[in-house]
Amino acid sequence: MTSRLASVVITLDMERIQDAQLYIDANVVKKSILQTPKIKLKEQVLDVGKLQVVPPDDRSKIHFDLHSLKNLLPLIVGIKIVERAVIAEKKNEKQKDQKEKFMGLRVVMGIEGINERKTFSNHVMEMEQILGIEAARTCMSMFIMTWPIME
After folding, report:
1. pLDDT at 56 (0 to 100)
2. Where do the structural domains in the chain lie, given as residue ranges?
3. The pTM is what?
């Protein structure tokens, strides 16, 4: 923040976004912020990886507005049903392993750019309902074999 303008600057980790094969830049984040109800903001795209968000001009509540804005912004972009995504590099391999925690496998698999052959849910019953019993069995054995006690 500067003394003239109170704002939140969002810096996107473009390398990680590209590694995850996501199609997100500052313009996508801007569009998502502006479509979110309950938030009336001014925004400015600084470059492809940066976005500056300015709260309304009420100087008496600026401190509280910035804190609430800081808490709301992480909830805006993404799929509402995905709680967490983990991208981990496997040892001795260049392949990256992506793990998500969500309900709604069918929705996630329908997104452009998602490799449905390598996407799975940690909810075994959902895997069984969408992909069948063999996929659920394979998923269970994979989870069991990757537990730290098995390594």
Report:
1. 65
2. 8-75, 82-150
3. 0.43
